[in-house]
Specification:
Elements lengths: L2 E3 L2 E3 L19 E5 L7 E7 L2 E11 L12 E8 L14 H17 L8 E11 L4 H15 L9 E8 L2 E4 L3 H6 L2 E8 L4 E5 L2 E2 L3 H35 L1
Parallel strand pairs: 6-7
Antiparallel strand pairs: 1-2, 3-4, 4-5, 5-7, 8-9, 8-10, 10-11, 10-12
Helix pairs in contact: 1-2, 2-4
Length: about 240
């Protein structure tokens, strides 16, 4: 429910909680499942809050041959939102936003994959957003990393992401749809956990240096938990296979 106050959306209630009842530093629930598409080399399904996203990965020799890189693999991510994924039906086909997110995901995954171990190979990552509720680029990247690992692609680390921002002037973690639409800032971030290397950082809105530091600290703490969810999803799949 949206609470209107003086013509604006009130995102923090009188009890100091967000509209969905979360504290400022509280994540939405996250679930990740691997191996959901039998014919893909690797796949993953993520539920992050109300977001529902499926990812399929295919590893093949790049074709036509003139597109091959003789020294390293090429990563191509294709992000798409289903027409029914949002309240107002989305027009089919790519647009500036989907192309930008595809590029961001490709570059972030390329930082994690040991590309030189797969010369002449193309790694295709297909991302389909089935239901969108803020933070789809980060949820897509987090799930894509699991799907790439599920495909057996050599990686330095899994990419893990999170968002933070400002709602009613307060720094909050993992923006909801209302906070994304009506808040003052949105900061998506992704890292390689083992080294802390930042592979994605964007800022949309105005934040002070102190607010930025607070936001990144929140995200770094949250990404420890998200990283564990990623690894548990992969381990769970192989534990089930071993038990069959």
């Amino acid at each position: 429910m949206k609470i209107k106050m003086e013509g604006n959306i009130k995102l923090i209630n009188d009890d100091g909680l967000r509209l969905d009842g979360r504290a400022f530093n509280e994540m939405r629930p996250i679930k990740i499942q691997t191996g959901v598409i039998e014919k893909a080399d690797g796949s993953a399904f993520i539920e992050w809050g109300a977001n529902k996203i499926i990812v399929a990965v295919y590893v093949r020799e790049a074709y036509p041959k003139h597109t091959q890189n003789m020294d390293r693999a090429i990563v191509k991510a294709r992000y798409n939102m289903a027409g029914f994924s949002v309240e107002e039906r989305k027009r089919p086909g790519p647009d500036r936003r989907t192309m930008e997110i595809s590029k961001v995901v490709s570059e972030a995954l390329s930082s994690a994959i040991i590309l030189e171990k797969l010369p002449r190979v193309e790694i295709d990552v297909f991302i389909e957003v089935l239901e969108a509720d803020a933070g789809t680029r980060i949820a897509s990247l987090t799930a894509s990393s699991v799907a790439v690992a599920d495909a057996g692609v050599p990686m330095r680390d899994l990419v893990v992401g999170c968002t933070a921002g400002k709602a009613d002037g307060r720094v909050v973690l993992d923006l909801s749809k209302d906070e994304d639409n009506y808040g003052q800032a949105d900061i998506p971030m992704a890292i390689l956990p083992r080294t802390g290397k930042v592979v994605l950082l964007q800022i949309d809105g105005d934040v002070s240096e102190e607010e930025f530091d607070q936001a990144t600290s929140m995200m770094m703490n949250a990404m420890k938990d998200i990283s564990k969810i990623q690894r548990d999803a992969l381990m769970s799949k192989y534990s089930i296979e071993d038990g069959e």
